[in-house]
Amino acid sequence: MVEKGESKNKKDYLDVYGENATADLKLKLEEYWKRRKIDSLREWEIQHLILWIMAKITSPRWIFVKNGPLVSNVVVISIDCFTMNFYQSHHKSLPVLNQIFKTMPLNEEKKSEANKSIPFEIKNSLYDSSSALAALLRCNQKLLKSSMAQLYPNEQHNKKKEPSMVAKKRRKLEGSKDVSQSAGHDSSSGDSKEEVEFYLCTKQELLVNKFPLPDDKELEGYITLPEKRNDEGISPRLFGIDCEMVRTEGDEAPAPGEKGRLDLARVSVVNEDHKTVYDKFVKPARRILDYCTKWSGITPELLEGEGVLTLKEVQRDLCDMLTSHDVLVGHSLENDLHALRIVHTKVLDTSILYPHPRGPPRKQSLKFISEKFLGRQIQKETEEGQKEMGHDSTEDAIAALELAQLKIKNGPTFGIQSPNTTGLFQILLCHRRSCAMFGSHKSVKQFAKPDSVNAIACSNDSETFRKLSSYCAKFDVCIANCSSILKNATEAKIKELDNGIRRVYQKCPRNTLLIVLSGQGPSEELLRLNKERAQKRNRWTLKEENELKWKEVSARKGVAFFTVKTEAAS
């Protein structure tokens, strides 16, 4: 007997099941929902079904596909604003859909029967136009591990692996530790030289993040810290540093449409014990256009008082205090070094040590990672949402230094948020399944990566149905998103939706698993009501509030339909 996945030749399966054999769905929702104490499905459970059919992972507990190996294609149609409430109100206007899926409209009187029938409820997304598709197309790690285990049964995929670059650095670091320990080096007293150097920005990172570099001949007025004797094996000194800037006259524009340039107005330096060793205000040589007090905390009075220095005086002081062997620590430190007009390549940058989950050029804010990893808030805001007299550069310098020390203490993978999701199309590609995505240019660009799926952009939902019906037999998995057909639903639009589903169904090959489900919820009306509530404030009544809550609850109740086509394509 041919087991699922042993052969991709459809004839092999027909020899076993018979030429006229078809697959069939058997729902097990009542038992499944009772055990999980819920009454609806999630998108990941629909992913589970698709991956069970196409990637041979463990079977879902809420549904069984009889003669599952016969299912040759999967077609999914996601329809925005298609809620359970909408279907209950307009099911009579969808005769084709009802006939295809043999539906039973849901109501309270037949709730127990409805749990065993189609359609059934799934959770909807309300306001984020991409979250519904994201939930459907990005698989969690549990499903990923299960699919990879089928591909590579001898590999230990349950073990969390480090990124290759991090693993390589870790091996290098561990080798350095072994050497230092064998030489009798005591690494318990602070961070060893090898540990610190392991985390320094690489040349590539310095270049990509636009740090001032020694070989940049266009830098004018920049200095380097002096060379001073550093005994071999002595741990380098770490100094946290942060600067505040104001906008001054100049030809350089830091952003399109903005005048002037950013110049140094305050510099703070803290040592490894988090003690402030230098904190000075700086008077720019150019005329100040904007003190940027909201962010910098700098006011005209602060730059007119005693002890205010010039940039050259600050450079002189820092050269007396620091050496070329010392490590400077900061957040987006390239901005501070440019403001100081200092070239220094021994740096620890917390925006690099704690990378953004979505990768460069995005960077996490110092405020965010301080709260997440240090457990304290910096750059606090008032009740009105305004920052309290801007940033405190000493506070920011200490936070950056502590974050760097925490990273060194806990290892290379600390603070690196591994993606919790992997694309559904990528997993299917690994299993040699051809995929296509249909939808608006925006959705296709966001979710259809060219290395794993055929992207078929459509100008409207009518074109989506037309192209899907033309290509549904040519790909193993087709996923389409209809984003506008029900936004302003009329009888004509509902009929167009019904006819579109009919057209796709007719073109699907025999034993195609067809899934129609809700996409994004009806957000426009909810946004309008929320805006109205904000405008009315005290005049917003309890009746209006209850109506809004009811609409939000209704909007979150999505709907899903499943069937396997038993006849040949027409």
Structure overview:
- The chain contains 23 helices and 19 strands.
- Helix content is 39%, strand content 17%.
- Helix 3 runs parallel beside helix 7 (131-137) and helix 5 (95-101) packs parallel to helix 21.
- The strands form 5 sheets. Strands 4-19-18-3-17-15-16 form a 7-stranded mixed beta sheet, with helices on both faces. Strands 7, 8, 9, 10, 11 and 13 form a 6-stranded mixed beta sheet that branches.
- With 570 residues, it is an alpha/beta fold.
- Mean pLDDT is 80; it is low at 1-8, 106-116, 155-189, 253-257 and 382-388.
Helical segment tally? 23
Question: In which range does the helix fraction lie?
Answer: 25-40%
> Count the strands?
19
Structural class: alpha/beta
* Oligomerization category of the chains in this entry: single chain
The share of residues in extended strands comes to 15-25%
Strand order of the largest sheet: 4-19-18-3-17-15-16
Residue stretches low in confidence (pLDDT < 50, at least 5 long) are 1-8, 106-116, 155-189, 253-257, 382-388
Please state the overall shape, judged from the principal axes of the Cα atoms.
elongated
Overall radius of gyration: 31 Å
Straight-line distance between termini: 31 Å
| Average pLDDT rating | 80
Major sheet: size, sense and barrel closure? 7 strands, mixed
Defining traits:
570 residues; alpha/beta; single chain; seven-stranded mixed sheet; elongated; six-stranded mixed sheet
